[in-house]
Design a protein that fits this description.
By secondary structure, the chain is of the alpha+beta class. Helix content is 42%, strand content 11%. The chain has 2 domains: 35 residues, no CATH class; 88 residues, lambda repressor-like DNA-binding domains (434 Repressor (Amino-terminal Domain), Orthogonal Bundle). It has a 3-stranded antiparallel β-sheet with strand order 1-2-3, with no helix packed on it.
Length: 140
């Protein structure tokens, strides 16, 4: 079995950046990510916060993991496991918006109650938000 993240080759992309192709633990060839971005930083902290908020609302409603997954209509061979993954932010790509809306509907709450504000997410991710420059009104 191949080693995880075994480098296969490096190449220069059309922008002059060196990119790496590696073999993952399944033996598949993958293009390595080039560090982190603001979006990836937000996604990581938002997934954790959304999971906590879902768990809190689910428990307050007296539902099990499986009951919430089934009520939200999330397709899964093992519903309890899929909802546990969502609540514990296991998948790196986060939760799809449609899934999040279905969970909010199943919990009987507005989706905004499951999402942190931009300011909360930025603080958790250690991102400094730029304050927009006010525009001056032009008299006509």
């Amino acid at each position: 079995m191949p080693r995880q993240n075994q480098v296969v080759t490096e190449f220069e992309d059309r922008y002059g950046d060196t990119r790496v192709i590696h073999r993952n633990k399944k033996g598949e060839l993958k293009l390595a990510r080039q560090g982190t971005t603001v979006a990836l930083s937000f996604m990581a902290v938002i997934a954790v916060e959304v999971g906590k908020r879902i768990r809190d609302r689910r428990k307050a409603a007296g539902m099990t993991l499986e009951q919430l997954c089934v009520r939200a209509g999330i397709p899964s061979t093992v519903p309890k496991t899929r909802m546990w993954e969502i609540e514990n932010a296991i998948r790196q790509q986060g939760v799809k918006l449609g899934t999040l809306y279905a969970i909010a509907q199943a919990l009987g709450c507005p989706i905004q109650k499951l999402l942190p504000t931009v300011e909360e997410a930025a603080e958790a991710a250690g991102i400094e938000l730029e304050t927009p420059t006010p525009r001056l009104a032009v008299a006509r």
